[in-house]
Request: fold
Amino acid sequence: MKRDVDGLTSFIPAAGIEELLQKKADPDTYLLRDIIAKSLDKHRLSPKETAALLNVHDPELKQQILEGAHTLKERIYGNRIVLFAPLYIGNKCVNDCAYCGFRVSNPECARSELETAQLVSEVIALEDKGHKRLILVYGEHPDYDAAYIARTVETVYQTKSGKGEIRRVNINAAPLDVEGFRIVKGCGIGTYQIFQETYHEPTYRRVHPRGPKSNFLWRLYGLDRAMQGGIDDLGIGALMGLYDWRFEVMGLLYHTIHLEDTFGVGPHTISFPRIEPAIGTDFAQYPPYAVSDDDFKQLVAIIRLAVPYTGMILTAREPIAIRNEVLRYGVSQIDAGSSIGVGDYAAKDDESVRKSQFVLGDTRTLDEVIYELVQGDYIPSFCTSCYRAGRTGEHFMEFAIPGFVKRFCTPNALLTFGEYLVDYASHRTYEAGMRMIERQIAAISDDGMRQAVSEKLALIQAGKRDFYF
Ligand code: SAM
Ligand code: SF4
Reply:
């Protein structure tokens, strides 16, 4: 693959961002209120407004930001949380990312990838737990080209176990060329996710010293090529801890604006993982710009307010207490019951840590996570209906179309959650979950919809599957 970046220039105005962030004075209360009100009024914030939020240091004003994000989440999206699992396909990698356990120079990493039979076993293990949505994860290696990615996606969709099936496969892999994206699009993926890691170019160069990933512009324009290859469902992200998190939030915003200006569609999801320890990787133990828990909460709330119409993904990298808290501020998707060693779902062995990219903060099972979500009054959802009904940009529709959440998202969440409860839940989760579903159905204001959901739920209990609106 020729990585041609001739004629491209960075759309991240680094000096301008630094300048905005140097205005360290807190914005006054009125300005802050206006900015939050603009977001609640369903408008994306400008870089200047976002920088004003990032410059807040006063504890009371910080609390207002958290509350603003919470209000936005509740008012627009309600209390659904979509669940998925990561599935690591192969950890061979030609890059040398300073923070990653898979980097080529790490002798501690046990290299492997799933043979087709192993991939099938992994998918069956995930389906038998109740998963319906996966993200497939790959190192960057000539063996993992677009055709290989497409084959693995097809295998996942074809693999069924009992009543289980995977209904949406997302991808987290190296940026491809346009033709490569076209091939991957052809096998029916959901989101293609690429994290820029850091939008600060000098830092980017330092932590990606060699390999194809050292090409900042090739990566920065990766999702442009995805669009040109026909994929309009994109995930962006920054790895928090490489550089000042405030700069990264601005980078995510500028990336969003760039995609909107160029293609008329912004990213579907934003990810903001913090660096976790990884075997053989001192850098990850002591990240140069480690983000504190308090800053992390602020970061989540500010992203929610700045780009109010994107999905926000929070992974099991984070410890349970943080996960539970930041759900309030706008997170829409979490993974659960995750294993991040190649082959770990079907057969965990002594090598597991050496096959993993980093160490997870939340190791609860899917059933435990679901039980606790219900205790927190969140509706766990495995919904994939927009993707399957050809409605792309589901998150944007939830945001932009009045009544969309009531007509589609909540009913679909309840039906997919009902399937999970009937097929996979422990006794305590079943009992708590069914009580929640009954409460939620009773609260549906539209008579026709209330009846339709009740009828479909009865059919699910009688053994029928896969209903969606
Ligand atoms: N190899 C591809 C790439 O780098 O884009 C695809 C996926 S990589 C396996 C997934 C993501 O994991 C990376 O984009 C990076 O942000 C994140 N990651 C790497 N090392 C990490 C660490 N120590 N802690 C947390 N996240 C990490
Ligand atoms: Fe390879 Fe991705 Fe890890 Fe970098 S982050 S070493 S590209 S797997």
Notes: The chain has three domains: 19-73, 79-365+372-390+393-397, 403-461. The first strand starts at residue 80 and ends at 90. The CA atoms of residues 73 and 174 lie 31 Å apart. The chain has a mean pLDDT of 94.
